Amino acid sequence: MSKPKDYYVSLEDAAFALGILDNDFLLWVKEDSPEIGRNYMNEKAILNSYLNECSKKENYLSKFKNSMQAENYEIENETTSKINFYQKERIDLLNLYTDFINDLIKLHQKFKEIVEKHGVESPVLAAYLLFSKAIATISCLVENLKNGYWYVGSMLREIDETLDVAHYFIISNPNETGNLDLQKWFRLGISPSHSKCRKAISKWYSELSPSVTQENHQELMGHLYGKKSKFTHPTFQSIRDCSLVSYQEDEVEIKNMCYGISSRQKRLWELTHFSKSSIWTCFQQFMVIFIDSMPLNQKDLDYLMSYNEKFTPLHDNLKW
User: Fold this and answer.
1) Between the CA of residue 208 and those of 20, 88, 205, what are the distances in Å?
2) pLDDT tens-place string over residues 298-309
3) What is d(CA 275, CA 267) in angstroms, rounded to the nearest whole number?
4) Which of 10, 90, 270, 316 could bridge across to 43 with cysteines, CB 3.0–4.6 Å?
5) Structural domains in the chain plus CATH codes
6) Residue 278: CB partners within 8 Å, gap ≥ 6?
7) Rounded distance, CA 63 to CA 145, Å?
8) Are 137 and 167 in contact, with CB atoms under 8 Å apart?
9) Are 199 and 178 in contact (CB under 8 A)?
10) How far is CA 282 from the centre of its chain?
11) Rounded CA gap, 149 and 268, in Å?
């Protein structure tokens, strides 16, 4: 079996993955002097293999407890005004997202008759149907976030996977393998693997723009996919983010568990901000996928491009 490829992780993401404080992780980096490089965003980064070494350190557990204590202190001493701020902004943003989703539905419905003319088992029909699933999933995500359900974050990855399959069917249409995958999708209920779709999409982007290499684009897609996968995988971190567990010496105290609606207002607020990228991606992908295959006219393109102006002011620097 081949050894998994090592890759660079930003210092901040590395500390988060280990579940320890940034300062404690930076002290380890200073002590160990591991290889420092740059990730796809040109951020100072560490090799992922170093994280595995850190998790086995003798003092790992004490650093982890430091992080838990700091986090619990922040939660337990959160002011009412802060909690109210997180709740209000979350709901305000989600209501705005609902407006965007409704715009997306109207845009999607506009092309129904055009798609029908593309015929049975066409790649455009498949992509169009997949888009309806992506929109429905986003709508479900937003409505559940309004009610405070933390674990709906797992839907973020499903949205990306759905859009990537749609994109794959369009760009692989002239390809014999792509046609076979399309036939399996319609007739056998089998979808091409996400890794296959991502590889094909990265190759397509690298051929479209000489400044983008297939390897760099795959690294970018893998990084974003990994961030959204954190909500899907049944890890301790995903449960820690909506619960309250205290570590005192060798004893554990479970103070609060999430059985549906989370009481962690800051985390729900962060997830709400993070979710906007999936809605924005839908508008962008509608243009990328259907610009030639539908095709879209200039008015359609101008309409889709106008959403860049709507989403850009909403951009934030939250790190996950």
Assistant:
1) 41, 43, 5
2) 999 999 999 888
3) 12
4) 10
5) 1-60 (1.10.1660.10), 78-314 (no CATH)
6) 138, 141, 156, 159, 160
7) 32
8) no
9) no
10) 13
11) 8
